[in-house]
Amino acid sequence: RMDLCTMIKGVSFLLETGLGTLGNFLILLAYAYIVFREHKLSPVDMIFCHLAFANMMVLLTRGVPQTMTVFGLCNLLNDVECKIVIYTYRIVRALSVCITCLLSMFQAITVAPVTSTWASIKMKAPNNIIPSFLALWLINMAVCIAAPFSSKAPRNGTVPEYTLNLGFCHVDFKDQVSYVINGIAVTMRDCIFVILMVVASCYILLLLHRHSQKVKSIRSSDRNQKTTAETRAAKIVIMLVLLYVVFFGIDNIIWIAMLTIAKVSPVIADMRVFFSSCYAALSPFLIISSNKKIKAVLRCNSQQREPRDQATDISYVT
């Protein structure tokens, strides 16, 4: 019989995984429709699309098996399946922070003033989006290559020391040194990208502050519409970065605590999984609520009608 605590935990994982997966899928569906209709995506739309895919995969590879485990479904995966799931999760989790960082840096370049230095970067940046995706995939696939070797299906009996007990899989480490080094390496990698995105966001905030001081004197409606759209897009990026930093901080506080414990309790591991997946689950709803293109597409499909001139008149500089 399932106790109240387990039920609450299971429902929490179910809601987080279900709603988050739905939100990311809606973003991908909206962009698929935009590609079908317009045959192209803007650079930032490509970044949003890739971020939604990475976040959806985070939820599918971690949230789904974790939810099933909480509800008492045992022996979900064998050794090979554990290795595939853990390896995929490590890659897409890393991609989530990398792409959020890429988004903040690209938006900083977009709103930067047109000077001799920035002009060249502004011209080159859009053409380097797809190569950046490819580079991030290859780098993270290489960095996470050790994950499958330490992953295995749970065994009956005592859990070995220095094992991350995920419930559906175990991640074993030989000793405390390898256990701590792995934790530090993952945290430091994420910290580098978090620092970059925070710096980029601070630069965007500085530019927005300067812009707000000047915009009062601007009377051109076309110019105002362009800068207002850029400002809205920049604010979305800052909110996404803030959302990631909050849950990154909670995730790593728990992770540091886990590094000091030889046998990590499944309850602590569950808490970390929940908070580390919050960004993947909540970010799509922030994007949907703030992105006029996606809202227009979803509204069009839900009502099964949308005036063509209204659809083409929407130009959201994301």
From TrEMBL:
This is Vomeronasal type-1 receptor. Pfam families: V1R (PF03402). Signal peptide: none annotated. Keywords: Cell membrane, G-protein coupled receptor, Membrane, Pheromone response, Receptor, Transducer, Transmembrane, Transmembrane helix. It comes from Latimeria chalumnae. It is found in: Cell membrane. Belongs to the G-protein coupled receptor 1 family. InterPro entries: GPCR_Rhodpsn_7TM, Vmron_rcpt_1. The keyword ATP-binding does not apply. The chain crosses the membrane at residues 12-34, 46-64, 84-109, 129-149, 192-209, 236-261, 273-289. GO terms for biological process: response to pheromone. GO terms for cellular component: plasma membrane. The keyword Cell wall biogenesis/degradation does not apply. One of its GO terms (molecular function) is pheromone binding. Residues 23-287 form the G-protein coupled receptors family 1 profile domain. The lineage of its organism: Eukaryota, Metazoa, Chordata, Craniata, Vertebrata. It is a multi-pass membrane protein.
